[in-house]
From TrEMBL:
It comes from the Bacteria. This is Fumarylpyruvate hydrolase. The keyword S-adenosyl-L-methionine does not apply. Coiled coil: none annotated. Residues 28-228 form the Fumarylacetoacetase-like C-terminal domain. InterPro entries: Fumarylacetoacetase-like_C, Fumarylacetoacetase_C_sf.
């Protein structure tokens, strides 16, 4: 038996709603600017350009219900998103077969150190310093496909301290879930445990310590996260 030279890092998991089961996470892919209105508010053309992705770390996913305000930033933004959890994968997956690989869906937040991301953009550098910091992806419990089907429409919202900040509909996504899975599989070998965060509607903005964010998606779930 192989002996590890350090303690084995813990497996990152997402709880499965209303069960004691968990979903082990392998990788986290995030699509950028996938709602036209959000592309416009970020200063980009909303036309259907090829999708682009960045990654968060598996242990950025956090189901605790708390978001610790991160260091080295004074401008941290919320971005509410639908997360897609894969039960199988492969290469060159056809669009028409893509949904067969989905285990379930959850609400998530792509928290962003916007000031650090903006500096990285200006310097032509990667975004990880703004996107992939500790506990930067609050996530709710997974709802299996057997329970919620494959949501391709439905209102997705985010309230901060009871005030509506973001509102969109899944049918406004430029690249739909099957297309995202297929596109990613042309560049990466997808596998069980992969999670895809599917982009955010318009209305992103800053949060402060002590505020409470409440995300909601029709037919899927709600997610409440306190900034601490």
């Amino acid at each position: 038996m192989t002996e590890h030279v350090i303690p084995t890092p813990p497996t990152v998991t997402i709880p499965v709603a209303d069960t004691d089961a968990t979903f082990p996470v392998r990788r986290v892919y995030c699509i950028g600017r996938n709602y036209a209105a959000h592309a416009v508010e970020m200063g980009h053309d909303p036309d259907r350009e090829p999708p682009f992705f960045f990654q968060k770390n598996p242990d950025n996913l956090d189901p605790s219900g708390e978001f610790p305000y991160p260091p080295q930033s004074s401008d941290v933004h919320y971005e509410v998103e639908l997360a897609v959890a894969l039960k199988s994968g492969g290469k060159n997956i056809a669009v028409e077969d893509a949904l067969d690989h989905v285990y379930g869906y959850a609400l998530s937040l792509d928290m962003t150190r916007r000031d650090l991301q903006g500096e990285a953009k200006k310097m032509g550098r990667p975004w990880e310093i703004g996107k992939a910091f500790e506990r930067s992806a609050p996530v709710g419990p997974l709802r299996p496909v057997s329970e919620v089907g494959h949501p391709n429409a439905g209102t997705i919202t985010l309230h901060v301290d009871g005030e509506l900040k973001q509102e969109g509909d899944l049918n406004q996504m430029i690249w739909k879930v099957p297309e995202m899975i297929s596109y990613l599989s042309d560049y990466f070998e997808l596998a069980p445990g992969d999670v895809i965060m599917s982009g955010t509607p318009a209305g992103v903005g800053p949060v402060e310590r002590g505020q409470v964010m409440k995300a909601s998606l029709d037919g899927v779930d709600t997610l409440t996260v306190k900034v601490v």
